[in-house]
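Fill-in record for N-acetyltransferase.
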Amino acid sequence: MMTLTGKKIFLRALEPEDLDFLYLLENDETIWEVSETQVPYSRYILKEYLKNSHKDIYEVKQLRMAIADFDQKLLGFIDLFDFCPKNKRAGVGIVILETSQRNRGIGTEALQLLTDYAFAHLGVHQLYANIAVDNTASIKLFSNLGFKEVGVKKDWNFTGGVFKDEILYQKINNS
C-alpha cells in the first residue's frame, strides 16, 4: 500500500492554514537563490496559490506537499515540478525552513517518500534535481538517495554578483 507517512514525518496536501508558513518561506531571501525568486510574494498571491493547490498534477504539471511532523508542525515543502507524463519525468525540490530542523533526517525521509510516490503512484520513470555546486547539503541528500550526477551547467545561475555552476542529478526507476 502506498503511503506518504514515514517514521519522523508525513507528507500532506497544502491547507489554507499554511499561509503564514508559506509567506515566511517564499519571502525568505536566503533561499531565493534556490527558488529563483526575485521579488517578495504578497499574502494575497499566496492565498490564491493555496486556493488552487488542489488542482491535479496532470493539469498544472506540479505538486507541492507540506512536510509535517506528527505534532502537526509544518517543517517545509517538497515539490514535483515540470511534470511530463509523456516522458514520465519530473523535477524535484525540497526546502526545510528552520535551520534547527535540518540535518535530522527529515529531508531524507521526505525525499524518499516523494520518490516512492512518484515512481509507484504517478508512474514516473525518472526524477531530476538541479543543485548549485556549493549546496553541499542538497548534494549529499540527493546522492545518498541514489540520485546520480549526470552533468554540470556552467555559469548557470547569477547570484551575489557571480556566476555559479549548477549540477544536474537524476534518478531513474529501473523496477
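KEY FINDING: The chain has a mean pLDDT of 89.
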